[in-house]
Amino acid sequence: xxxxxxxxxxxxxxQPTDHLQGPEHARVTLVEYDDFECPTCKVAAPTxxxxxxxxxxxxxxxxxxxxxxxAHPHALLAAEASESxxxxxxxxxxxxxxxxxxxxxxxKDLSRYxxxxxxxxxxxxxxxDDHIYLQRxxxxxxxxxxxxxxxxxxxxxxxxVQDISFGMMALEERIRGVLRREI
Length: 183
Fold this sequence. Notes:
Strand 4 (154-157) and strand 5 (160-162) form a beta hairpin. The relative contact order is 0.20. The longest helix is centred in the N-terminal third of the chain and has 16 residues, at 39-54. By secondary structure, the protein is of the alpha+beta class. The protein has helices at residues 39-54, 75-87, 91-100, 107-116, 121-129, 134-146, 169-181, and strands spanning 19-21, 28-34, 59-65, 154-157, 160-162. The chain is globular.
């Protein structure tokens, strides 16, 4: 970002509906808006795990949905499936499974993944049939739009957008810089 560009900030603070990893009082809050069908998001996912390992107890990570439905026709349904898994305490296993199988996110595939992570299939099927979690996903999308997001993945470090257009190393450098300044 140039120095003349307005700073893009996170429009919505952490919410109970966010999927969180890391301690509540971490010095860095990292929020990601993501799309399960986005190839760049799949590449970014291991970086998040690495950052959480590299900076234990210093990062609070929040995952939010931002399925780009025009480009990724299965992303919205995958987001709903991950929310159904979350309701049964299995968001992160489903998250990882969806990225590992990114090329296969149709209804039947999602049901197979739900079974694989051990979900109650009657509950999963009823929730998916009734789109119980569609509103939650839409709320994530809305908060992303209010934060001026247009692409995935988009990251915010302590409420300020982090440009990763030249690679994920920029995210790690920013986190290192924040941690150095806040000692």
